[in-house]
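Summary for the lay section of the report: proteins are chains of building blocks that fold into shapes. Here we show the chain for Transposase and then a coded description of the shape we predicted for it.
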Amino acid sequence: MKTTATQPTQPQPTQPQPIQPQEQDNFELGDNNIDDEIFNEVEVGIRDESNVRTKRGITRLSDIWNLPPGKKVVVDFNATCLPVGEEGGVFNRFIGTVARKPHLCPINCKSWHFVPNHYKEDCWSIIESKFFIPDDERDLIKHNTLKSLGEKLRAWRCSLKEKYYDESKTAAQVVATAPATVNQEQYADLVSYWYSTDGQVCKIH
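The coded shape description reads as follows.
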């Protein structure tokens, strides 16, 4: 159901509220669920809790989301702790799906800096549960990963603005055209920011 709202005089984005666990699986990603986007099969290494390694072909990111508990993709990292190789490509794609999950990365924060830490920690916990992270490089990998996640969230917010913002319409009209797959309250806050004085003069973060 579409949300209707009046255009605020001085929009004040609300503090994003954690979504209850039972609601989380109902969220899709933007206009297209990129979890189920099919790409050329990639064979990745999988390690389980017993340290047994196997190979598995994946063709969509939902394969990673649906890995059994305890099984993780083995990723190689370079000297600066950035993911490399085919598994590294899957790692980066997966981060992109996390950035579009409204219960993990709220779009109504002005920038990654303003996203509360508990969201960031939840994101990292999920990423770490799907990919094997070497203990001796964990801190730097975490830093790089969360930085990348913030960049992908910014890109997602920008893509929403590019597609839905229309200066010939009121904020209420734009809110009413919200894609059904985003969090409606977060989207209304984001649209209010677009139409605010700050949103008009500042490049969106």
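Put simply, here is one thing we learned. The beta strands are 42-47, 53-58, 72-74, 76-77, 83-84, 131-132.
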